[in-house]
Amino acid sequence: MKKLITTAMMVSALALSGAASQAGEIAVIVKTTNSNFWQNVNKGATAAIEGVEEHTMSFNGPASESAVADQVNLVENAVNRGVKGIVLAPSDPEALVPAVKKAFEAQIPVVIIDSGLAENGKDYFQAFLSTDNCAAGQLVADKMISEVGKEGKVAVMSYVAGVGSEVGRVGCFVEQITENSNIEIVGPYYSQSQMATALNQTTDVLAANSDLVGIFGANEPTAIGMGRAIVQAGKAGSITALGFDGNSDLQDFVKDGTLAGTAVQGSFQMGELGVQAVLKLLNGEEVPSFIDTGVVLATKENIDSPEVQNVLY
């Protein structure tokens, strides 16, 4: 996890009108503050700003990942109050482009984390830090096939349709399954990143598909709701369930066998490296245009290993 995979191409810092010598705020704006995953991003961002006297860091996000308009407002407000830099996890690849463009026009460097912007926004930010979500989806799919074989039905419990991370993560999971097995995919179902919604959806899916052999919960609140539904249905251990992200609830599900594994991103690294990238840009330094913050698959067998403990939260 410590080793970063970066592209060879480097991008130059903006001509920031003397920003390097001006103290100011770095705004970290995530998809929602109501998630342990994003709070772990906050911890990383806080670690990055410690000891930096000339800049402060703020952390904000809407009440839910589906509150896209609220996130747009947060970015626009940050631009209007003249922050020195922005670290942004966009909830919608298209909707955030105009706000990021405003930051670019105001000569405010933007570093994108977790989910990408749409193609028409690629010129308005300076670096992108993320899990390779397609590779992560393929990793989970390979684990699913190894557990259930190449026949049967597997349900996909997703979160917000069209979000950059979801497109890669779920899309490549489904593609890897269909190309390498005869497994039938049920879904995907979209929880809007609401645990209660995922619980109810999973309860319905389990009831309607008694022959289900596997199920995948594609982000933290979705996987938690999925896991709780599996336990309530009395199917823990009898169906292969795989999650995504690594908070204490999901760790407990792995340890007690409700989940056969959960894929964990480097959320702390997203916050830490995102703020560090903005600081470098403000100092006129170059940063990689892409930094892969990695993913590991936590299972009952390896959950206590240093590699996995390093990314759990």
Automatic annotation (TrEMBL):
Keywords from the named record:
Signal
Domain Periplasmic binding protein, which positions?
Answer: 26-286
Q: Where is the signal peptide?
A: 1-23
Family matches, as SUPFAM superfamilies: Periplasmic binding protein-like I
Q: Which Pfam families match?
A: Peripla_BP_4
What InterPro entries has UniProt attached to this entry? Peripla_BP_I, SBP_2_dom
Gene3D superfamilies, from UniProt?
A: 3.40.50.2300
Does Ribonucleoprotein appear among the keywords? no
Localization, per the record, is:
Cell envelope
Transmembrane spans? none
- Family to which the UniProt record says this protein belongs: Belongs to the bacterial solute-binding protein 2 family.
The cross-references to PANTHER family, in alphabetical order and at most eight, read: D-ALLOSE-BINDING PERIPLASMIC PROTEIN-RELATED (PTHR46847)
**What is the official name of this protein in its record?**
ABC transporter substrate-binding protein
- Look up and give the organism this protein is from: Roseibium porphyridii
Q: What is the lineage of its organism?
A: Bacteria, Pseudomonadati, Pseudomonadota, Alphaproteobacteria, Hyphomicrobiales
